[in-house]
Amino acid sequence: MCTLEKRGSLFILTLTGDDQHRLNPALIDSIKAALDRVRSDSSSNNSTSPCSALITTAHGKFFTNGYDLAWAKSGGPASATKDRLLLMSFKFRSLITDLISLPMPTIAAVTGHASAAGFLLALCHDYILMRKDRGFLYMSELDIALPIPAWFTAVLRSKIGSPMALRDVLLRSAKLTAQAAVERGIIESAHDGAEETVGAAVKLGEELVGRRWDGHVYGQIRMVVFDDLLRAAGFDESVEDPNHVNKVISRL
């Protein structure tokens, strides 16, 4: 599912394998467990390593291709599909909250396509670096006739400053290459290939660690900056009945 490597003060989380890294509960749980280890390790070593940084990347053609809708639909009747969608949403929103609250700078090294929820996962890092020769950022919902939850929009509004860029992402389903994303101010920089992208992410991570910031202060400031995003992630109107959610989560 994913691996976690410690390289000095950098943590490198890699989605493994050559598939689409679809965000089903198993993969989300694997990423959350890695973030728990990062948080625990950074807390225990705080006195000797006052700042760390996280880099998230992936093997293969995709960074992640979004929710695992095939898994959701494999549960049987429509009611079971809705329950599985609810579970994915619940776990993914919890993952985003974990990422936003992480006590260190975060960098997404996007070496393949990042679509829908996969695009959101990249956006919820502090910096996005992307390879030029493969991959695009893409909100596919309009093209597949799937409404976008309000909390998805809250993430996009928090991270994409240009109204025209936001329009292109949401209302044109634009497939943004690295160069187009740089021009729209969505990503930090574009690089020649996967190795170069990860290498640039490592260099940026080392520069950020070199500032020797207090990680907990960094995380607290980030949570204040993205308070609206975090509050919006508390509920997904597209799948949730508040009276039903706890029952579903306990059963699945």
From TrEMBL:
Pathways involved: Lipid metabolism; fatty acid beta-oxidation
Keyword Hydrolase: no
GO cellular component: peroxisome
GO MF entry, a single one: delta(3)-delta(2)-enoyl-CoA isomerase activity
GO biological processes: fatty acid beta-oxidation
Similarity comment: family membership: Belongs to the enoyl-CoA hydratase/isomerase family.
Name of the protein this chain belongs to: Delta(3)-Delta(2)-enoyl-CoA isomerase
Protein's organism: Camellia sinensis var. sinensis
